[in-house]
Amino acid sequence: MATGKADKSLMVIQLTGGNDYLNTVVPYNNGLYYDYRSTVSIPSDQVLPLDDEVGFNPSMGAVKGLWDEGQVAIINGIGYSNPNRSHFRSMDIWHTALPEGIGTEGWLGRVIRDLDPQGENVLTGINFGRGLPRALGCRGVPVASVGNLETYGLFPDLEDETVRRFTLDAFAKMYGGAKGKDAVLDFLGQTGGDALKGADILRTAPAMYQSTVEYAPNPLAQSMKNMAQVMFADLGTRIFYTQHGSFDTHSGELATHAKLWDEVSGAIGDFMADLKEHGRENDAVVLVFSEFGRRIKDNGSGSDHGSGGAAFLVGGEVRGGMYGEYPSLRERDQLEGDLQSTNDFRCTYSTILERWLELDPKPIVNGQFEQFDLFKSSPE
Predict the structure, then answer these.
(1) Is residue 32 pLDDT above 60, yes or no?
(2) Is residue 120 situated within a structural domain?
(3) 145: buried, middle or exposed (CB in 10 Å: 19+, 13-18, 0-12)?
(4) What is the pLDDT of residues 156-172, one digit of tens each?
(5) Which one of 175, 202, 229 terminates a domain?
(6) Which has more confidence, 328 or 195?
(7) Same domain for 176 and 233?
(8) Helix (H/G/I), strand (E/B), else coil: 131
(9) Confidence bin at 132 (pLDDT 50/70/90)
(10) Helix, strand, or coil here: 264?
């Protein structure tokens, strides 16, 4: 289902577990950081400076290179009022864009529905990983979940094409049934039919892909490679999602956090290099977020659940720089030992929705929020 047009795409990387903001965008020139982080801190001479106050974790070399090219926006202090330190509740809030109350639809599920209101393309949204993140869940909106694109599909191990077609036909009839007789069977039939259609379309993407970029052999890098393969196949996919972690670094943080960011940074760097090689660097942006940050003080070998964090937006059309105020570390400005968030995450969502995907953000994020000037060009 080629579109014949380079539509703007959004790639989302979820840093599951609560990424340590202070050890990611490091306030290396602030003595309070080293006072509070007596053991779990980054030495100032190892930080990759962004300015005279903050710098990247030393494992973020590839992202620093993109920053130097003006392709990385840092949203400092991102969060929401009355922060929740439960992984499940906080991630649910980010996924549904509803800090108060319980949402039934994911914000990206609503995005996919707006992008394809008739449900004509079952591949408008794809999750790379197992299961379906709540952000993509929306009744009536098909989303494919792909573990490995190279082996993805229904009955891919059946090498005899005649046998495979016979099996697929049986699968299709099993999910067919008489429409309108039973709501549950109708839903299962639609789900099965969408899976059948999407699987066979996606099987074509790897064979169409050529690149000199060598992605690392870790799950995130391979998911980013799969995103590039699908994007370059022009299958009409607009929303891509994947997760990496766990960033829940209560102990042994320095080594674990460094490894995780080496993988994240490298995967983003490879993906952006791939886009550039194919002349598509202005057609996609990558949003990186985590459900919350960590507490200001370390616990001796790690850091515990906190609030206030950072999100990142990366892309050729991104107006690189700092957005949002870096939260104060002073004791009188803290929130029970945590960083105060300085901007609502829905400001970032709204900006991406209106200025990148050209959608009305209000019904998707449940309200009207201030926007950042994150893009070099915005729709008129």
Answers:
(1) yes
(2) yes
(3) middle
(4) 444 555 554 554 455 44
(5) 202
(6) 328
(7) no
(8) coil
(9) confident
(10) helix
Instruction: For residues 144 and 158, state if they share a domain.
Output: no
235 and 111, same domain (yes or no): yes
Single out the residue of 150, 260, 137 nearest to residue 204, CA to CA: 150
Q: What does DSSP say about strands 309-314 and 284-290: parallel, antiparallel, or unpaired?
A: antiparallel
Of 296, 293, 295, nearest to 311 by C-alpha is 293
Structure tokens at 278: 């194919």
Bridge partners of residue 144, in order along the sequence? 126
At 345-380, the pLDDT tens digits run: 999 999 999 999 999 999 999 999 999 999 998 665
Find the domain containing 270 and state its range. Answer: 9-148+218-365
- Asked if residue 246 has a cis previous peptide bond (ω within 30° of 0), the answer is yes
Token duo for residue 218: 């870790």
Tokens of 172: 């299709």
Domain count of the chain?
2
Same domain, 237 and 178: no
CA distance from start to end of the chain: 28
Whether 262 is in a domain gets the answer yes
Q: Does the global pTM surpass 0.85?
A: yes
In a domain, 36, yes or no: yes
